[in-house]
Every structure is written in structure tokens, then in C-alpha cells.
DNA sequence: GTGAAAGCGCTAACAA
DNA sequence: TTGTTAGCGCTTTCAC
């Protein structure tokens, strides 16, 4: 069995409570005694049992981090940043994947509930109502979702989407289509709304096709709808989908960017490596991961303080998947 | 405060131990009482406190999963598979990232020690000696490392590397270089050894350059060494490095695969999306993730049973980054 | 500044 | 089949 506080106490010739204090409130213990205790602890290889501590303090020093799909390249940088920052702040993090399923998400929150001090919901697939309901039990912070009264980090994809429409309109495209993501995705809604507004400003036609799976496959399948709509400009929910759409278009004989221009979202490695290099909306994922942990810890510490919603900017990164519209007669 | 076993007991009109049994050993309790307890628990929204349970049982039902770099595309599919399979088996998993630093790895193991039943070390950067020492305290399972007496899942990259050399030699390349990965990487050693043996069989020259950072940057920097060695065939430690090397070669005026053939390892999305599409050694990451959890749980359950080392096959996937050697006079 | 004692939520003998 | 009791490792009053 592992070394406990009791054995350290014995070795140092003090009472257990003194050992406890040495670690949780060192200033309350005589410097000399403290030295002795610390030496004994080091000698025996003592490590506090956090679970036991949690039982009395009510603080586990653990966080939950729930994402839709770990393997989607959008998430790993965020997970990495969140996890590493949490560690600096003294927290370990449970990472869980919902496979894009809201029911799994709810179940996971339940399982995690008693063993974490709070949960980070990244691009949740749950409805706002469900989040609010579950949030009554447990501090939450959400990323890419606006929920009344809840700390949130929002990546303002709307401005990016607007810029994308400006960009496409500027290139002469008159008929655009937005390929939406999963049903409950806030990001997807933002893109649609902002792109719609921008299109109207430019007097450009814009239609919506969705929901789609946020994957290459989803994009590949959606290519048909793009052609059916007669669009020459596409804004896809994420890079993966944009890459899939480009493949799908190629299969149907339409080349990117010659015949159709495609814009992705996220600025993942995938988009940078793809050929043509993807024009995309860059999301500040690492900043978001860090900030979300910050907000969550704040929410945990100050029970019910004022809610903070943090908005991070996004940028349009122009690469090679967008180009000027070519006159109809030259197409096909 | 959260609902405890006591309140459920009161509501159901039974003693706490009966409630406890209803959840941990339902068959030991009268069907009728059980119903009543379950109903009361559901009514109150009771959720067992796993940390408290862990205190008495010594079982946390948590696992640790330590990787070198979450953002490296090799890991996410493995993490996803491991996490999802662990959940099916009733375990939650802490995911931690060491940033390729062995000291962080050791520290993380220490922190996790008392709150998990076992730890999965995926492509560890720690020395074997350190792993054995730390493993005395806590069940481990390792992936991509062979440690005496420890359950392991090995992706047999050696055969893949041999096949890669066969492939390159078959294309006429007579001078190859292996770009190694991090210092303590078992995979890197395997590649070097197997490639060396295969090169000897073919009577082909093979040199080694390493260690390198397992990133695009690392590959980019190593390109100079490739050219200096006068090699026309390269096997890189992973896809990222291969992609970086291709860029680096291009910068130096050498085109892939015209002037130099490059083989990666891992078969990540990155490699599939890169242009030229990467010839690479496919690693069964998802299978490995699942299998490793399996082995770890086995090790946890049967204290000190016979050690299992599981070897998974790898495949050479030929794409566009390798091609026939072109006569010297046509190069440059 | 340190010790004594109670208790966090739960399980596991042991009795009844 | 159910209740009683002790205790897991730790923190936290309260005395001294």
C-alpha cells in the first residue's frame, strides 16, 4: 500500500494533523518542524491522496474536458493548451469524446460530475436548455456556444465568415452556398447568419445546405448540392469538410479554384497541407483553450460571480482554394 | 451539496449499507427493497461519489493516458480509441501531454499515481530503467516500447521499415538515410535497426541522422543532411518530419520524388493530404489504443499475471513521394 | 504551534 | 436479507 500521512507523522515524530498542515497551510507550522516533516515525507516518498483530500475539502482539483471528436484536427491543439494550462494551475483533466452524440455528452457529464470541480464543454452538441439544466449541478464553461449566464469563450467566426463573403464577392462570385455543420453547432449558426448578412450587403445570392457531418465525407457528399445550386463560391463548416468538398467537386469535373472557390474554417494542419492550399478562417484554438480554463477556474472559485463571455477574433487566411470567377462560357 | 447515500437511505426507509449494496452487489438485496432504493435514488438524482468509493475499495476506476504531444496527429486517433474503449469498460481517463519532456512525464506519473488504477504510456520518452522503477508503484501498459516484464503493445514498424527499404532499393536507390526521432523513442530505434538490416541485404548504403524533433521543423532542418549525404532515398521518423523534409528539400532545389524519394511513418491525415501524397508506413493506432487499454485492465485485475506483449503489424502504403532513381546527369 | 477528535461518502466485514 | 460498526486518507475545528 502507498505511504500515508500517518507513516510520515510517525517518522517525523509529530501528529498527523501537523503533517497535514505542513502541506496545506505551511505557515501555520513551526519552520523547524516543517523541515522535519518534509524530510520524512521525501524520505518515504509520500504523495498526498487527492481523492481523500477531495472528500473533506470538496475540491477534487480535477477538470473535465468534453469534445465532440478528439480525432478532428480542430480539437487537439485546444485540448493540449487547456490541459497544459490546467496543470500549471494545479489541475488534472479528464478528456472525453462524445462522438458527436448529445446523449453521450449528457451521460459523460453525469459520470464526471462528482469527480471534477468543473467541466469545459467545447463545441457542445447539447441544446442550450440541456446545458443550463446540467449546469445547475456543476460549474461549466463553454467554448463556441453562447449560453445565458454561463462563462464562455466564443471564437467570433461571424466576422471571419463576413470577410470570406467579402473576399468571394470581390472575386466576382455571385452565387454562394454555405455548407452547414452539425445540428446544434453554434459555430455553424454563426457562419450562416454572418455570411447571409454579408451576402445581402453585396447583393449576392446565398443558399444554405445542411446539416452535414463535419468530416471529409460530409463535404464530399455535399459537393453535388453545390453544383446543383449553380454556386461558384462555397463556405464550408470546417477545413475537413472543405477538403472533402474539393474532392467531391473534382470527381464531378469541377476544379478548384478554377470553377469553384472554396473557403474552410479552423485553419488546421489539414488545410495547410491540402493542395490547393485552403483559404480558411483561422480560429484561435490555443488561446481559447487557455482562456476557457481560466474562466472555468474563476467560476469555480467565486461560486456565482458575474458571467464573463470572452470573444476572440478570427482571421480570413487567403491561400489557393479561392480565385476569380471565370465567365460561364469558359467553364466545362 | 450533492445527494449522498444517506439521503437515499432515508427516503427509501433503509440503512445506508443497503443502498450501498443495491449499487455494488444488487443480487444481495431483496428485489422489492432494491426497487424502492433505486426509485428513491432516481427521484433524488443520486450519483455515487467515485472518489469516496475509491477510498474504501482502493479502486478509482480511472486510467491515466500519457502521450508526448496531443497535437501530433499520430496520437489523437489512439487517444480517441483508448478513451472510448475505457469508457465502455467503466473507466474514465486522464489525458496528459508531456511536451516530449521525460521529466514532465515522470512528474505526471507521480501526480496521477494515487488517482488512477493504472497508466498507459504511449510512445514514452522516459528510459526503460525509469519506467521499470516507476512501474513498481503502479500498473503500467506501454505502447511502442518493449520493457521487460511489462504489458506492451508494439507496432512492428520494423517490418514496415524493411519493406520501405525493399521498395526504395527496387526503385534503384543506392544511398539511403534514416532521419531518426527523439532520443528515447523505441520506434525510432526499430526503424533504424530494421532499415539497416534490409539495406545490408540489398547491398545498399544507409546512414543515420538524428535525433531530430518529430515535427515538420525537425524534418525541414534535416533536409540539409540528406543532401550532404548524397542520398536519394529517405525514411523519416514520422509523417510530419517527412513532410518537413520534403519542404526543406524543395527549398534547396531538390524535388520529391524526382530527385529524392521520401517515406514517412504513421499514415496520418497529414500525409494523405500532403502533395505529393506521402508514401508511408501505416500504424494501427486505433487497434493499439484499444488493445493497450485491454492489457492495462488485465494487469490491474490480475495483479501479477504473465506479461503480454502484443505485436501489431504495419503496412507500407505506396503513394506519390517515392519514385525511380533518376540518373545523376539528369539531376540538377 | 501542536494534538485530539470528528467527519467527508462510501464499502466491507460481522451480527442479527 | 438487513443493520451495525469500523475505517479508507485526509482536513479542520477546537482545545491545550
Automatic annotation (TrEMBL), chains A, B:
Species: Streptomyces millisiae
Residue ranges annotated for the HTH lacI-type domain, each copy included: 3-57
Keyword field contains DNA-binding: yes
Signal peptide: none
Molecular function terms, GO-annotated: DNA binding
Keyword Transcription part of the UniProt annotation: yes
Name by which UniProt lists this protein: LacI family DNA-binding transcriptional regulator
Record-linked Pfam families: LacI, Peripla_BP_3
Entry keywords, A to Z: DNA-binding, Transcription, Transcription regulation
Origin: domain of life: Bacteria
Amino acid at each position: 500500500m502507498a505511504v500515508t500521512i500517518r507513516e510520515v507523522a510517525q517518522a517525523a515524530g509529530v501528529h498527523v494533523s501537523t503533517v497535514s498542515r505542513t502541506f496545506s497551510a505551511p505557515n501555520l507550522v513551526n519552520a523547524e518542524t516543517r523541515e522535519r516533516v518534509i524530510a520524512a515525507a521525501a524520505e518515504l516518498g509520500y504523495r498526498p491522496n487527492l481523492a481523500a483530500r477531495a472528500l473533506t475539502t470538496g475540491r477534487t482539483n480535477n477538470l473535465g474536458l468534453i469534445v465532440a471528436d478528439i480525432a478532428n484536427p480542430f480539437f487537439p491543439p485546444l485540448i493540449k493548451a487547456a490541459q497544459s494550462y490546467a496543470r500549471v494551475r494545479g489541475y488534472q483533466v479528464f478528456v472525453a469524446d462524445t462522438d458527436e452524440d448529445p446523449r453521450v455528452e449528457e451521460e459523460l457529464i453525469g459520470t464526471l460530475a462528482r469527480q471534477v470541480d468543473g467541466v469545459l464543454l467545447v463545441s457542445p452538441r447539447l441544446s442550450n436548455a440541456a446545458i443550463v439544466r446540467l449546469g445547475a449541478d456543476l460549474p461549466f464553461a463553454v467554448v463556441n456556444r453562447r449560453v445565458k449566464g454561463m462563462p464562455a469563450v466564443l471564437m467570433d467566426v461571424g466576422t471571419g465568415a463576413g470577410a470570406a463573403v467579402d473576399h468571394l464577392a470581390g472575386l466576382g462570385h455571385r452565387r454562394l452556398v454555405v455548407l452547414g455543420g452539425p445540428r446544434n453547432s453554434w459555430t455553424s449558426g454563426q457562419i450562416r447568419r454572418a455570411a447571409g448578412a454579408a451576402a445581402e450587403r453585396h447583393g449576392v445570392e446565398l443558399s444554405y445546405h445542411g446539416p452535414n457531418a463535419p468530416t471529409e465525407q460530409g463535404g464530399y457528399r455535399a459537393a453535388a448540392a453545390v453544383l446543383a445550386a449553380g454556386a461558384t463560391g462555397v463556405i464550408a463548416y470546417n477545413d475537413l469538410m472543405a477538403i472533402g468538398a474539393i474532392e467531391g467537386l473534382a470527381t464531378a469535373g469541377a476544379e478548384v479554384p478554377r470553377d469553384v472557390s472554396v473557403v474552410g474554417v479552423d485553419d488546421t494542419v489539414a488545410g495547410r497541407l491540402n493542395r490547393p492550399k485552403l483559404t480558411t478562417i483561422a480560429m484561435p484554438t490555443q488561446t481559447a483553450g487557455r482562456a476557457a480554463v481560466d474562466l472555468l477556474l474563476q467560476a469555480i472559485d467565486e461560486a456565482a460571480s458575474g458571467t464573463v463571455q470572452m470573444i476572440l477574433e478570427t482571421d480570413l487566411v487567403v491561400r489557393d482554394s479561392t480565385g476569380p470567377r471565370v465567365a460561364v462560357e469558359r467553364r466545362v
